Fold:
Amino acid sequence: MKSYLYAAGIILQFFTIVPLHRTLPMERAERKAVLHLLPLLGIAKGCIYAGAFWMLLEWSPFSVLSAAFLVWLLPIALTGGLHLDGWMDWADAHFSFRDKEKRLAILKDPHMGAFGVLALVLLLAAKFLFIYETVRAGSGYTYSIVLIPFFAQALTGLLLQYVPPAKEEGLAAFFQQGRSASLPFVYGCFFLIAVLVYTLHPMFWVMAGASWIYFIWIKGTMKKEFGGMTGDLLGASQEGAELLLWMIVWLSVSFGME
Structure:
């Protein structure tokens, strides 16, 4: 149990901007616990996003545009834009159409290329569009918003578990040392709880199916294009997952589903 308490602190240190000025043990037990707790991080983030979404719509004097901007800004503020750098690096590497070694070298290059900048603009613009349309539709979509970071963070854990590292150093390789045979059972328990909560919510099943398809696709793409997982690719995959799930909510709004 103590390793899980340490893991919660490690998650706050590595994946949020919450100040936790304490040196924590990071042995294999703590890394294993970090992987187990990633869906719980998603639930916590989802509750924060959904709570802000609901309060801005029901209790604030802000316009729809202002509320949408604040909801759009909240994940960036909470995480410090942690994964956006990985998204840009992935775009530069992917659209270089080079071999695996060259793509890995591009990921390590601190300079930003045109494809990275374009990908960032498109990501942020598309996400703002999806959020704006959802905010305009009203608070009936609050429960769906909780699922977005839940599935995205669970996908992060599954990728760390099932995709081999492309290199032996880096953040992804560090946390992959916490892979364990118990992770599928733990994630299955999280999923079962979500099923019990959302069993009559059709959006849950659509988002779950889309997340699984995305996992299969991104897993194969990482192996084919990069030879495995890196920290940048992990961040890019999470940004992509959240964008996909926001798009599903937006499509639900457009077609009048809840």
